[in-house]
Amino acid sequence: MSLKESRINSFILEEIFAPRYKSIRSVQEVNIRFINNSRDTVDLCWIDFQGNLVRYLKLGSHEVVKLTTFTGHCWIARFIRNGAAAQFLPGRNEVFVITTPFLHTAVVFIIQKVPTLFEAVVEHIGELLHENQYAPHRLPIPELVKARLYNKQEICSILKDVNNEEKALLFLRKFCAYFLEHLKVKQLAEIFVNGQIDLCLQAVSDLSVECSDFEINEIFLTYLRKEFVVMSFSTVYNYAKKWIDFLLQNTSGIRNHCLLLKQLICCTNLLQNKQLLLLLHEILPQIYHRLCCIKQYSMALVIAEIIFYAVALPTTYSDDYDREALWNVWNKLLLSKECVRSAHFNLCTVLVMSSLDLDCAEHIQSLENSFNDFEKNDDFSFNLRKQFLVLLEANLGVLLSRCQPTQSEKLLNILITFHLENNDLHLLMQSIFRYSGLAEICACKILQPFFRCLLWNLSLFIDENSSQQEGNIGIWIRKIVMEILSISDKSYEDELKSWNMIMSEFILAPHHMLLSDDKRFCQTMQLICGKKFSLKTLPISLRVTLFCVLISLIPYISSEIFEIAIESILSIMRLDAKLFRNLINSCKEKILKKYIKILLRSGCSNNNSKNAQILVKEFLLSNCNHDTLALKCDVILKAALQRTLVEEQYYFLKPLCDTFSEIHYETNTEENSTLRICAEEIFRHVYGLVSPLDYRNAMKMAFFELSLSMLPVVEILQKSDKTATEKEIKSIAKHVKIADELCKTLCKHPERLIEFGVISEPLSQLLRTSILWMVRRGKLERIVSWKYVRYFELYDDTTVNEIISIASVDMLKSLLYSSWHDLHASKKFTFYFALAKHQNEDKRKLLSIVLKDILEVIVDIAGTNYLIVAGFLQHILPIVTGNAYERDFISFALALLAANYESLSSDSIALRNAVSLLLDCLRFGAHSVINDQCSFYMNLFVCVGRAIQKYVNNASVVSPQLIRHLSYGLAKVAHEMVKHERSFSRVAPFIISECLEDTKYLSLALFRIFSMCDRHSIALLTTNLPLLQKTRFANLSLQFKKIKMVV
Prior knowledge:
1047 residues, four-stranded antiparallel sheet, 66% helix, VHL_beta_dom, von Hippel-Lindau disease tumour suppressor beta domain-containing protein, VHL_sf, VHL_tumour_suppress_b/a_dom
């Protein structure tokens, strides 16, 4: 369809001629079913005998209505949102006129009106005028037309004016060119719906010839790909033939047609379209020669890519191909005198020969020699450089498997530089991992060369930003890369020796040098920290390399990526802890001690990084020699003493104390005098910061925890060290006695801490430390008593769970039998809830002893916090199954849901709990499903379904995962109802009738419930439901029958 043939369309007719419709009187009845297939609600209106609109009914999205009307009557549908007219299928008319009677019920679809290209153009002009009435003067259209662009009516009058027909067509062509170059995504989506692609492609073809400066953009091409994929083979062939003929006959508009042809070929299956494949093999070499002759070299390379695709595809995915014939197709290009041996062409040649299993060593050398050609940018948007890089990255796996190491590195360096400039280096990483497949042989060919190039570039960035005196770190990184990632056949033992040798030459980077301003450095660092891949998938040699590089660069790293780098180092070390501790031991002691201090200073200045403390602890634990450990600890202690702020001292001392708490069980030896002295110094310093103890001072309480962790260590070290004096032993014994009294008081009377103003989080941590101290001191039986348990509500979940895990079944049983009846419900509830959630089944079953007390407790708690009670019931119901209290708990759970159903629609967590609790009541309360409770279940099911619908309607953002979870949860509830079909079959019709409005989210559940309906129930629903609900029920019934037939 040409522009001239399509210039008069329904939009222009409506604006200019405004036709009127009237219904004609008739007595011949017609049955019609209207189906609203649009996304919005419409008003279905009848046009009466005077031409007036008579509103008949409102029809929601995807709703159906069956009407009886008469021949000659007219109907129209208008969207409630904006009053715009909808269209009727199959004729795409805005007014549905019944001209002939139908033998059966006719089906008419109501759809959204699809704008044509001209409508979109006119609408776009209107938007420009709305924003600025002078905006059209910037458009590439004639001045005579610009003068009349004031509003849509003027635009339409230009199109209507016969005398100005040529001007109107010129205006449309010029403006369409501008419009297609500046299309928005929303406009494209509307234009390409239902058949507008033909008009668009014709417009592009015409405009390419008539407007020399018209160029289609990438957004337009992206949408075209989606259309090309679904085209039939015959349509694809016709388009390809048409554009190939154009390229053979024309000299203008070549660029757009080459790009269209490339997109079309890339989106079709050439193996099944043999006719098109033969056409490409025969004609495309001629087009390539012609484009070279007229010096359209960039477009000639596009054609070369298409030929490569047409040659490589059969060799890759088909066993039935003629290698010699396919090579002759490409050889026509090589033999051409006009052929330009650019990097892009040489790359295509290498790929073609690789696909045909031919020797391409000579052409790979030619490719290496022509690498500099692609850097010239002699095209506007689709330049040679970008074409080359896109093709190179798409076929990187093939190339790296055939290239020599030096050639591979050149290719990779080109890609790394390009992606660093575009700030999307992570995309290249994804491609590398996709091609490598993470197999060992692929790692050598692809992964290791890539990381070698990446780290080499990183070291150069460091040299650029460092002075000559500080440039040694870059040299050391390059040595790591060459030593570890060089391809060799070393055994693991030899590799281990070389890794230890490298770490022995570890160079410390200066702390004051930061490279945060270098975007290339930051991109590379984020990538090697494993941000876009899993570190455990890398070969061991790569992990060792990254570990060495990352620990050397910690002082260089800015706060933005400091935490990421530390996490990556720890992740690498956890994968093979023994190996990396040995590597750390290979470092010189002097360098290592200095590095630990720098690491602590960096962590302290980066928001008191906890991961940095963990890494320091790993460095301390790397050597089992007590003297060496004591020297490292002494360095940290001296560094802590130099800090002026108490918070900074705590940050330095925390990893020290944690280290001692982990190794003190292994220190039962007589060779620990140095370590004992060091531990005593640390304890004295920590205790000095604690005294005098002030519960209101958070830092003093934190140091008190450290002192509790150090006390057992010092005590054990003194027992195993004969050089310890009696005075030192008595001093530590005194401190232990004081700690016993303090911890006992803290655990027995934590309310005193609350009176002093200690907030919840520090209080929980302090209580946990005190509890663990008492457990370590053998006073577990005292803790597992109601004097202590009544304060469990102040403990965190971890502490309570640890106490239950340590306590024996007999201890817990004795505790439950001695339940204090005068305790407040909240005091008992925390312990009951923790025991119900515990993993040990024998300990969970102990709750059956006190079910009566539990029921009284949760009744009290439910009035203040029903959500936590609902969560508790989900854990306790499996325990009460088959018990005398089963029916009481089930009844209480249902009553709890019924009393709080109004709050469900505003809280997603409450919705989740409600669905889960309803399911558990049916699953574990099988003996309590009686007739009265069936009605209760029915009402709750309906209420929860409506709450889901209301929540979706009211929430600004709804998670699809949440909706899926709730829908499947209700389907499981319905499935449990089916298990009790004898009880629930009588209420099934009522559930369906109440939930028909919410079928969108309850369809799976309703199918289950529908299966319980007999013929009488279905007849009852069919007869008594309102008109709209009958239609919905008919659709549900039809879908159920289809599913049943499939099953």
